[in-house]
């Protein structure tokens, strides 16, 4: 058996994580703002700073960070449960999402003591929001080819370049940017470093990108002679690539790679029940259930590896590829079903939810690494490359 | 421990040559005796009753290996029958399941496409919620005519068989039978994946192994995803429990997910292999023929999707994520 498949071992959520679920459900029942299915369908792209602060007040932002810095020190399993419950109802979590999942753990792992003390408590209070700065106009899937550059001067680092497809940069306070500090794009992974960029510094311009649904979740960031203090560098100069890779296992394996469309299934079921159509689509529902139950087992298997301190990049890629395919199937199936009874048109809220997800579904297999890149990673994991 | 023991036994005795011979009507006696002597029939029986004391997860690992070796005997069903029927002694020999027995208008009993019907000596069947032990020797057998298939349809006179002292709704045995085929499918898919990987690394075209071509790599990556999904779905079913058996909804997911993957895995393996894969002399066909047969055996994904859909309909006020979670809870 291929070693990769042997490494994806079934695992269980520990009892403590199971017990935690009731607390989360209770919180959501009390604090979740009343939102229509079409708004909930934004899922982890929905930005609501007030809701993030409520979660933070409950101790649930920066959940895996140490208590010394204001974190909740939850294990990866309890974070899985928290995330799962929030996504199941389409809670607007985008404001704190990136800091909770990636930026906070990155600073905690590679940052200096001063950086930890400065940023982590503010992340945990949902006072500051982070975005990622990886992609560039000509460096998306070919991430190692990035050209944005920081040059060390007597005054500090001077940053020049441009980042794109940054989620919610216009609403964030900081971006953690992967930039070149030595060499040329031809040098690939060598010479890359990560910086915390204060998005209010002179020389930073953020331009939201309006998408086909009329939303503007993505942004473009321009850096023109932005002067960064010496302590903006995270970790070691030239180690950016290795640091980014540790981050990506967190990004790719979570429930957000399975649940982006799940709110639509619930809305669709409610509508079918009202219209007496649910029996007609029972087989389709059963298939969706079989896939989700299985994907969830796979996601928990990767979570167990993260909990054990491993960096299961290839396993996470495998689950993400399958998971995003599932996320993309749901709006396609629901659209076909809604159009199958022209005499009973869907109500506008359900129609808007289905339309939003159909419009945006192509991005599900782009964000966090494209399908083609992930298949290449899996092939490498199988020993074919 | 159990898995290692059966792996080496199957490696030695259940060779592709032996499987081919039995499929073509040869006697399974030698292979049968080797398995019986090793005590595998009693794998699930408690240790104090002279059994192996294996758990359901142990059982799953053993059955996966049976699938990976295309074992032409119903070892899994025999072991499971002995675990389900504890109150009375079962006959020696090979037992298979027919959990969808149909009582015809004239009272006769019909079981369509019984897996291993040609190599089993007895059938444990469900006529409604009544469990029956039916000797294959008393049945009229209709081979299905599919090349190499060991399945057969069986028909018994109205008074055939003996009632078993088992209180078991038919659905429970249906779920267990399906879960067994999920494990067999998972094992066979792993084997097929290994064959495809081996071939991709070995077969050279245009001056390099075909596994170096991105188009082939992506096919194998997708195949790996589905083999992994099927394997975890099958395994997870055996970690659930409802009155001593794997839970019904979990069995449903296991069979639905493995059956759905089987088609993709079989066709991808053949695509990677090119024409050699469909020849009688090459071993791939031993497993891909089974993938298609087992996909349908004890309910295809269509059957089990409907069963799960019925569960969604009953619980249509629950969050979909909660339903998915409860399946393997």
From TrEMBL, chain A:
PANTHER family assigned: ACYL-COA DEHYDROGENASE (PTHR43292), ACYL-COA DEHYDROGENASE FADE34 (PTHR43292:SF4)
Single GO term (MF): acyl-CoA dehydrogenase activity
Domain Acyl-CoA oxidase/dehydrogenase middle as annotated: residue spans: 131-226
GO cellular component, one term: plasma membrane
One protein family per Pfam: Acyl-CoA_dh_M
Listed cofactors: FAD
The protein, known as: Acyl-CoA dehydrogenase
Keywords: Flavoprotein, Oxidoreductase
Location of the Acyl-CoA dehydrogenase/oxidase N-terminal domain: 17-127
UniProtKB/TrEMBL annotation, chain B:
Residues of the Acyl-CoA dehydrogenase/oxidase C-terminal domain: 181-301
Keywords: FAD, Flavoprotein, Oxidoreductase
UniProt cofactor(s): FAD
Annotated protein name in UniProt: Acyl-CoA dehydrogenase
InterPro entries registered for this protein in UniProt: AcylCo_DH-like_C, AcylCo_DH/oxidase_C, AcylCoA_DH/ox_N, AcylCoA_DH/ox_N_sf, AcylCoA_DH/oxidase_NM_dom_sf
Family membership: Belongs to the acyl-CoA dehydrogenase family.
Recorded coiled-coil stretches: none
Pfam families for the chain: Acyl-CoA_dh_1, Acyl-CoA_dh_N
Residue ranges of domain Acyl-CoA dehydrogenase/oxidase N-terminal in the record: 1-75
